[in-house]
Design brief:
Blueprint lengths: L4 H8 L3 H8 L7 H14 L5 H8 L3 E7 L4 H17 L5 E7 L5 H14 L4 E4 L8 H9 L4 E4 L11 E3 L2 H14 L6 E7 L4 H16 L5 E7 L8 H10 L2 E4 L4 H11 L6 E5 L3 H8 L5 E4 L2 H16 L10 E2 L3 E3 L11
Parallel strand pairs: 1-2, 1-3, 3-4, 4-5, 5-11, 6-7, 6-8, 8-9, 9-10
Antiparallel strand pairs: 10-12
Helix pairs in contact: 1-2, 1-3, 5-13, 8-9
Length: about 350
């Protein structure tokens, strides 16, 4: 049941007009009454009427989403859903602008965010940072200036960001190891392919992956090979060494399709267990041809919808009482159900 100003007024034994003044931040009410009304509104679960609020104030809120460029198949889908979701809230004063900025090297993205904050054009920001620690100070500085900053897909947990929407990367790595183990009982050598930087995401994926085998007391040898997602010119020497020496490959970053290309061209595609993340047309193809055994998807569309909704509630509705993180569930995709995860 929707909680109204009239219901709050009845509970407190005061006029509806007084409650309405408090809920719409108008003057003429004592501090004591303001506290009583706001406490009772929170107790009853009152939520402002967004349309009425916007019509009364005609105040619009401009929000900037700052997203990476690669891998394009992931961020293109997320950007499109941000734009689609934002249309729902346009009539309530929410204006969204999406910027795609290179995040490798991370200084490009950091300097872009700094410049945007200095210009003070937007009322709030939703960013997908390349890493965690290098972004703490810039986020905290923005929040100190009164600019709400949210994180999307990649988190900066030690900062004062308002909330995070994305997946649990430790669990993603743990799940990847469990998937690999499910494909074979004879697993001796495994390779992790990941970013060459020790980013928050890469650290947690690798830790989860290694912890799975440690907890299961296996004798699996795990080798980590760092690469750069924006420069996947892998040498023939290490590719041959990797392929000959391993039983399975976990691709933790955005080069899954490139690794699958190499396997398809050089090796018996059924001899390697290849696990990675996300979905593209090429990844879908390699699932169907058994080069890739399975991928773990993190539903970029859901991430986009939740991010838009959370920022709307915070900056437009000014609903700041419950800004908990939104952890998106991980989904296992195989050859059988891959068709449900891609749009041609």
């Amino acid at each position: 049941m929707k909680v109204t100003a009239k219901m709050i007024a009845k509970e407190l034994g005061i006029s509806t007009a007084t409650v309405d003044r408090v809920l719409n931040n108008r003057s003429g009410v004592s501090e004591k009454t303001i506290r009583r009304v706001k406490d009772k509104a929170a107790e009853l679960g009152y939520r402002p009427n967004a349309a009425a609020k916007y019509l009364a104030t005609q105040k619009s809120m401009d929000v900037a989403f700052i997203l990476p460029v690669i891998p394009c198949y992931f961020w293109d889908e997320l950007e499109q859903e941000i734009r689609n979701s934002a249309k729902v809230f346009e009539d309530f004063g929410l204006n969204v602008q999406v910027f795609r900025v290179d995040s490798i090297p991370k200084e490009i993205q950091i300097n872009f965010i700094k410049d945007m904050l200095d210009k003070n054009i937007y009322d709030a920001y939703v960013i997908s940072p390349h890493d965690a620690d290098p972004y703490v100070e810039i986020i905290n500085e923005g929040v100190r200036k009164g600019i709400p900053i949210f994180t999307l897909n990649n988190d900066v947990p030690n900062s004062n960001r308002i909330s995070f929407v994305g997946t649990d990367y430790y669990t993603a790595g743990f799940l990847a190891a469990e998937l690999i183990q499910s494909f074979t009982n004879e697993l001796r050598n495994v390779v992790i392919i990941r970013e060459d930087e020790n980013t928050y995401q890469m650290i947690n994926k690798e830790k989860g992956f290694r912890d799975y085998f440690a907890k299961n007391k296996g004798q699996t040898n795990i080798q980590t090979i760092p690469v750069m997602s924006d420069n996947i010119q892998l040498s023939e020497e290490w590719k041959k060494e990797m392929m000959f020496s391993c039983d399975a490959i976990y691709v933790a970053n955005g080069v899954l399709s490139e690794i699958a290309d190499y396997i398809d061209n050089k090796y018996d595609k059924n001899n390697k267990i290849v696990i990675g993340h996300d979905m593209s047309e090429k990844i879908h193809h390699y699932l169907q041809t058994n080069v890739i055994k399975s991928v773990i998807c993190q539903d970029p569309s859901s991430q986009a919808r939740w991010a838009v909704q959370n920022v709307f509630e915070y900056v437009v509705l000014e609903d700041k009482k419950d800004q908990s993180d939104t952890i998106i569930k991980l989904e296992i995709v195989t050859k059988a159900n891959a068709k449900y995860y891609i749009n041609y």
